[in-house]
Model the fold of this input.
Amino acid sequence: MAVDSPLLTIWSRVQACAWIAALGWFAFADGAASASAYVVAGLGVSLLTLAMVLSVPRTIADWVTLARAVALVAGFAGPWWLGQLVWSVWLLLALAVAMDLVDGWIARRFGASERGAVFDMECDQLCVLALSLLVVAGGGSPHALALPAMRYAFVIAAWAAGIEANDPKPVQGDNRRGRLICAAVVIALLAATTPVTPALAADVLTGVATALLAWSFAGDWTFLFARRRAEVRP
Done:
């Protein structure tokens, strides 16, 4: 695990269980109509507790990551307050997504930390979660919720199997595939949430994104199990 922290492990597992349950509620129990305040509060609590567990921000890049996460939560809350997702709110969400490029550049330019890398990874997950919920709330198919659910299912399965799941670079320190897939997923979700995107187009975008992310997680899972077998082999 990139950050040796029992609190981070506990946080990850609690988040996984809580959000899996929340996603099921949102998908099958008219969640879009009744869960607004609870989900906004849940996103805020997730972000706050993550920052406390990791003791961030510590670097300039961490501050930018925190700023984009706050902008994301504010953008997510916008449709609930306004009654619909308007262009100004969507632009705030797009800005939050674009800031991921900025914090990456700043980290490379001015230095990063292992805690910052985990913070960035978990904020990426928060972004996928929020955008997926907005897609479904806007009339999209519930299959979009599989996008954030895959990460949570991965954490729970790794917990059951005794495999660490918090390393942002699980495959030999190389995370290029994961970052490319994450970028594709976020772009697809952002496109699916525009005020003018037809429901069918949104479903196609999220369907392709779901297939790509499932392939990426399958590769990570295969690698982690192979590494575990190699470690226990006499």
The chain has a mean pLDDT of 86. The chain has one domain: 6-229. Residues 155 and 225 are 14 Å apart (CA to CA). The two ends are 23 Å apart (CA to CA).
